[in-house]
């Protein structure tokens, strides 16, 4: 509990989490407003449409999570932390937990805010949360945000430099998984198992989202797979952190 409190204090005494949270909320909710406001009168706004901006929110949350680690390496405060708590794994798990909880909260506020704005703009459409599929599409965003933050903490721990970690995360999340599909023959098969592609399948699995009909994993299996990727990456990062100098 003490480690969690320490990591919480360290996180919230810097400005970057606040700015990243605001940007993630603005992007996720703003896109819902743009889509709802620009739809022709004859078209229907769906629950999934209101969450169209969550991918940009994920990218910003991963920036927040990576900075929580790389900033400490940049200013050398991680050395003091490891001297005070020699068990480095506990420190990194506590940091990942705090960042994941914050990301979960940001994701839920963003998702329900986006849904609420879409419903306010197009109240006559079928935007009400009437089924478990609708609830997962909205409430599941925060869960995906949380595990994405754990992945970003792991990458930040492995790379340690802010510029390198942020560049890798943003390029991967916004481009790499989609570009993999362009590889002849094996591209689509690889793409099917890419972590964020699988996470999207969790959010849209019960509502018949793209690619869900032939998916190798079930909806909850997709979430378990994404969570497993996050945990494995964090375990690798902890193992590397234990073997090298801070």
From TrEMBL:
Domain of life: Bacteria
Keywords, alphabetical: Membrane, Transmembrane, Transmembrane helix
Designated name of the protein: ABC transporter permease
Membrane-spanning ranges: 18-40, 52-71, 92-115, 135-159, 166-186, 223-241
């Amino acid at each position: 509990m003490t480690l969690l409190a320490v990591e919480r204090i360290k996180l919230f005494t810097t400005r970057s989490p606040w700015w990243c949270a605001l940007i993630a909320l603005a992007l996720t909710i703003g896109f819902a407003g743009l889509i709802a406001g620009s739809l022709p009168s004859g078209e229907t706004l769906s629950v999934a449409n209101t969450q169209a901006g969550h991918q940009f929110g994920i990218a910003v949350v991963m920036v927040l999570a990576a900075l929580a680690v790389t900033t400490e390496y940049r200013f050398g405060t991680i050395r003091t932390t490891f001297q005070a708590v020699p068990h480095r794994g506990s420190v990194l798990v506590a940091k990942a937990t705090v960042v994941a909880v914050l990301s979960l909260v940001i994701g839920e506020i963003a998702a329900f805010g986006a849904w609420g704005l879409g419903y306010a703009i197009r109240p006559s459409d079928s935007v009400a949360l009437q089924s478990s599929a609708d609830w997962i599409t909205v409430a599941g965003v925060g869960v995906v945000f949380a595990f994405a933050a754990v992945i970003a903490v792991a990458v930040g721990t492995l790379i340690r430099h802010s510029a390198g970690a942020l560049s890798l995360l943003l390029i991967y999340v916004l481009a790499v998984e989609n570009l993999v599909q362009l590889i002849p023959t094996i591209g689509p098969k690889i793409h099917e198992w890419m972590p964020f592609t699988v996470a999207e399948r969790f959010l849209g699995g019960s509502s018949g989202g793209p690619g869900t009909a032939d998916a190798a994993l079930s909806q909850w299996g997709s979430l378990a797979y994404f969570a497993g990727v996050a945990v494995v990456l964090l375990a690798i990062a902890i193992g590397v952190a234990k073997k090298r100098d801070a």
